[in-house]
Amino acid sequence: MRSLIRRLRLSLLGIISLTAMLAATLMMPTSASAAAPVKRSAALSGVTSVTTAPGIAATLLKAGILPLPVLPQTHFSLGFQHGLNVTYGFPITGGDPSLATVSGDILHSGGIYFVNLRGKHLAVTNFDIDLAAGKVYATRVNGASAKVALLDLDLSGLKVSSRTGATVLSGITLRLDPAGAGALNSTFGVSLPTNGSLVFGTAVVTLCAS
């Protein structure tokens, strides 16, 4: 059984890696055109890790949708606890967050490339965590400048801790925003809930100030 799980893990990883590289090469904009139209601060870096909730990855795959990482910026790994899950790592490129007032933005590179076997795709990249609005926006969609709310932040379980040279925000629950669900539904013909109730996953934000 362990051998079977290991082979399945390696097979899925290989498929996702190959498809993601092809998608990144053929479909994504060049770095010159991928700058988000929002203010950036080079003084802030780090990474935001998002792990999908149990059932999310399986639901997408069952519908024929691959939630691929946008390479090379986005790191990713697969897990099999409580079913298949995917963890994405989005590099932090700047921002001006204030935990005291729960305001400001945390800006990222990378993103998620949703694609199905029929060639339909939805590339959401350059995420902006807007603390005041309590949302995660994609500032580029399919390579074009945009501002689409993908996820809603639930900070009721927020924990703030310190690590060497970094501030870590954990206990963040992410729910699929109605706009994000609508974009996926209209692109792929699926019926994800559009009332903001679907838990997409959890996030850990590691902030490093230089």
In round numbers, the mean pLDDT is 84
Cross-sheet strand order for the largest sheet: 1-4-5-7-8-9-11-12
Helix-strand pattern? HEHEEEEEEEEEEHE
Distance between the termini: 47 Å
Beta-strand portion reads over 45%
The tally of strands reads 12
Characterize the biggest β-sheet: 8 strands, antiparallel, barrel
Work out the radius of gyration. Answer: 17 Å
Helix content: 10-25%
SS-derived structural category: alpha+beta
**Shape type:** globular
Q: Note poorly predicted spans.
A: 1-40
Number of helices: 3
What distinguishing features does this structure have?
210 residues, alpha+beta, 3 helices
List the helices and strands and how they pair.
Layout (H helix, E strand, L loop, with lengths): L1 H25 L17 E9 L3 H7 L2 E5 L5 E5 L5 E11 L9 E4 L2 E6 L4 E10 L4 E7 L2 E11 L4 E5 L2 E11 L1 H11 L10 E11 L1
Antiparallel strand pairs: 1-4, 1-12, 2-6, 3-4, 4-5, 5-7, 6-7, 7-8, 8-9, 9-11, 10-11, 11-12
Q: Your description of this structure?
A:
The chain is α+β, with helices and mostly antiparallel strands and 210 residues long. The chain is 20% helix and 45% strand. It contains 3 helices and 12 strands. The chain has helices at 2-26, 56-62, 178-188; strands at 44-52, 65-69, 75-79, 85-95, 105-108, 111-116, 121-130, 135-141, 144-154, 159-163, 166-176, 199-209. The chain has an 8-stranded antiparallel barrel. The radius of gyration is 17 Å and the shape is globular. The chain starts with a helix and ends with a strand. The relative contact order is 0.17. The model is unreliable at 1-40 (pLDDT under 50).
